[in-house]
Every structure is written in structure tokens, then in C-alpha cells.
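Re: the 266-residue chain
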Amino acid sequence: MPDWLIAIVLGLIEGLTEFIPVSSTGHLLLVGHFLGFNSPGNTFQVLIQLGAILAITGVYFGRLWGLLTTAPTDPNSRRFILGVFLAFLPAVFVGVLAHDFIKTVLYESPTLVCTTLIIGGFALLALDRMKIEPKHTDVADYPLKTAFIIGLFQCLALVPGVSRSGATIAGALLLKCDKRSAAEFSFFLAMPTMAGAFAYDLYKNIDRLSTNDLGLIGLGFVAALISGVFVVKTVLDFVSKHGFAPFAWWRIAVGVVGLGLLYIPR
């Protein structure tokens, strides 16, 4: 398969998986591994997130603009913005400190990705079945402490295969947030987190990128943007009706198949 087609496939996967708890990074690393796609420092997988960032920013533009314009006069808007900021900080701190280890060690282990997909799938399945009486049903009303603890959970997603949205949703559910608002908070938290990861990875690897890399990243970006818009517009209603069990079973299936392809003699 030519590199340009692989780039489009990976971009579609990024957009389809970034905002659901199945680990977009895990899927990208596994598919890239089995298709023989190599990116210096796995930079491609991070930079095409720009498409997904623009997808969610575009869909949520009205709400974001409302928050920014009302923040000077509305304490609730200021508190929500501060909550997202507090949730964003832990991953920034840990991500910068452990960046090289994550990219050169963790990202290079397909076995680790498959294992964390499976473990995370069973954890998500257990959480989905727990009878938790929600205390928080509106992201705008999340206490600052709750937002910060959700941010600590997000740090787990620095291990590929865990899932950024999966980790934040799991944290929110354990803190007695309902499923829909947990997924929505993960959307808002995704914007600064993904933008920060994009900017930092571009800064670290700008000298390693070639013109060909930029062309492939552009293709992946467009594909991620298109598929990301579709997912953002549909996932909240899907979660409200079906919960997180379908995503959990998908994670387990992908992890098992991945391990089979890695270790079953061919």
C-alpha cells in the first residue's frame, strides 16, 4: 500500500478514534506497525491530531465563543474555564518530563499497546456496569477539585493504548459524573491537551521533518478533520443510549487480534 494511502487511512482512524475511549494512538501505532509505515519519532501520529483538534473546535465553536465572551462577567464561565485548565496541567507536567521515554520506548512496543487495550477494555466494561448514582450531570457545574482529579487520570493516557478519552471518562465516572457529561468534559479537555501535544512534538521534531513528511501529514490531517467532525457530532447521543460497553468490547477485540498477529507463527 503506498504511503499516501496509508496516511489517509491513518488520518481516518485518528478522527474516528480520538474522541471515543478506544485509544487513537494505540490504533495508529498498531495499524502503522502492521502496514510497515515508519515516521521519525512517530511524529506523524501526533501531528495529524491537528485535524481532530480543528474538528472538535469547529463543532464546539459556538459554546467556546460563549464561554470566552461571558467570562469577564460570568463567574460560572470563569470557573469552568479554570476547571479545564486545572485538568490540563498534570498531563503537561508529566508529558514534558517523560516525552523522550514515551516516544522512544513506550511507542515502540506493539505488545504494550495490545495489552493496555485489553486491560483498559475490561476496566471500562466494569465501570460501565457499575451502579453509580451521578452527582454531576453538567460539565459547567463540575467542581474544580473534580476537574483536577480527572486531569490526573488523563496522565494514564501517556501510556499508548490506555486512551486519553478513556482515562478521563473513567476518572469522571468514579467521581460520580454521569456518562454523557463525562464524555463531554473529555471533549473540552481534549482541545488544550491535543493542541499542547501537537505544538510540543512539532517543536521537538521540526528538524526531522521533510517535504514528503509534510505532504503525508497534510493528507492525514484532512482525513482526521472529516472523520473527527462526524464522531464529535454523534458520539454523545451514542453514549447516552448505549453507554461505553461497545467501546470496551472493541478495545478487547483489537488487543486480542493484535497479539495474535504479533505472536502466532505465520
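The first helix runs from residue 3 to 17.
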